[in-house]
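Before relying on records like the one below, remember that each one covers exactly one chain. Contacts with other chains, cofactors or solvent are not represented anywhere in the record.
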Amino acid sequence: MPDRPETWAFFAAWMEQHFPALYAGGLALLIAAWRIIYSGGRLRQLVLEAPLCGLLGVGVSYGPALIGAPPEAGVFLGSMVGLFGVEASRAAAQRIMSSRLGGEDEAR
């Protein structure tokens, strides 16, 4: 790859454009991993939940742009996903969606 500088330029431009989302996802992964280790969780929980929190953090990090907030606010939301975990984030999203859509969740 050293003989193809355009590849590195493309990669650097991509990283610069998507850095807040990658940072939010990485931070969510680390916070979730530390939370699980601190609370005495099992290895299976660490291996499954921490990456899920990271991926969810990446998805959530694009949300502030939809409401006109700065993209850096996505890092805060991503770290909150890592702190609360996947189950708490899912429950909060389910409550918000059921209140917005007007009715109880049919899956219960």
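The first helix runs from residue 5 to 38.
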